[in-house]
Fold this protein.
Amino acid sequence: MAEKDDTLKKVISHSKEYGFVFQSSEIYDGLSATYDYGQYGSELKNNIKKYWWMSMVQMHENIVGIDAAIFMHPTTWKASGHIDAFNDPLIDNKDSKKRYRADVLIEDYIAKIEGKINKDITKAKKRFGDDFNETEFRNTNPNVTRRQEQINDVNTRMADALNSDDLENVRQLIIDLGIKCAVSGTANWTEVRQFNLMFGTELGSVSGESATIYLRPETAQGIFVNYLNVQKTSRMKLPFGIAQIGKAFRNEIVARQFIFRMREFEQMEMQFFIKPGTQMEWYQYWKNTRMKWHNALGFGEDNYRFHDHIKLAHYADAACDIEFNYPMGFKELEGIHSRTDFDLGAHQEHSKKNLTYFDSETNERYLPYVLETSIGLDRMFLSVLTKSYAEETLKDGSSRVVLRIPPALAPVKVAIFPLTKKDGLPEKARAIMHKIKLDHNCQYEEKDAIGKRYRRQDAIGTPFCITVDHETLENNTITIRERDSMKQERVDINDLAQIISSKVSISNLINQE
Ligand code: ATP
């Protein structure tokens, strides 16, 4: 655990030192749970967006993208259920005054038991070697089965209490489990209360004419209210999808773990409109498709897992998360939800507009069902950064910090160095860069020894460094150095564009889908 926490700390300070992520309004001591993306962070973020948008919109003939406003008519949030039900159960410790999400306290308790099970499994794996059968061990080892029963029991009690909005029982469960505040070490808990996560503000400047509107807590509703506009203007037939990338705002009770949980963040959502009754088929399809999208990055399949929801949201008839193995453990990265016709039905009722779809194949009118994939851009960013970060000792005994960001997502693709600042090398290097920058984000550097320049580029994850030397002037060749292997190769300048493009293009990731 200590080692894991360390990685997050290192990534946070590396992000700041190298211009990936800064705390918002830092000169005023910052604003909690709000962050700004710096010069390399915004490039990485844009590349993640490109990868998502390309795989959703460009690669699917039946998915189009939109960009809806953040502010929406207040009735939207009544219809969606957010005004009445977008709550988190909060609980305070009376001694430390620290506030917690009650469900998270219980989930952390479960995670500890899971940790013990995993320890037992690791030990047994070592003992039995190749003969080890994990499923059998899980089903038969008395320690593991007892712990698993305990987890199931806690899960059931929590789901029952939350689903029936029985907050007293949620508190009782925390007490029964002996959960204590990490700060005071006591179990002196307040009642559990529901807390609405939406940020409200006033619309209009004339007193008496204002109305409370909300900063959207999810991008999805902008898609639902536009579904017919899009369907009609693009003459789409079911099944079809609408994709969107945009900001969302939630007044999180406990915002922590860097950019994992923020009060202002970005979502990449796709709502797929389907014929009622086909939702389980599409649920499977999108689960597979999204998992492939993640795996194409090459961080290793072990770092992702599905987690089925026990407590279904008010709109869902099936739901799961794709969890990622962050330094602080497996946590939700993306949600996949079968939302039925809950949203379109509610908007139809509240707007009094007919939102049904005419199915020309069956001559029927009905409200489509919706299958949703919703991923947090910032959480995706954090997953990429934490798995790319590496500290290495090199053969000569020196060390380097390298971000092994998949080349297609790297903020800078190519760095170009003249070996020295004289003899026409800078001019030649700039001439090469002039051409490459039409296609790729490049950086020119002539200060310091080449080794130091390599280290700086490794630290921001640049996949290729090119050195222009005296031989370049003679035979038009340059040295290209690859980030991960650190191998250097002499190549003809005319081959450069092709070599780089073949490695850094986002299509490399898409082709593997
Ligand atoms: P959590 O259980 O972690 O609060 P959620 O289930 O409420 O998340 P959804 O409503 O399904 O999240 O939102 C879809 C995605 O948006 C999440 O999978 C996550 O990646 C992202 N997301 C949600 N809340 C935040 C936040 N406060 N900060 C950053 N990303 C977030």
Q: What stands out?
A: DSSP finds 18 helices and 23 strands in the chain. The radius of gyration is 26 Å.
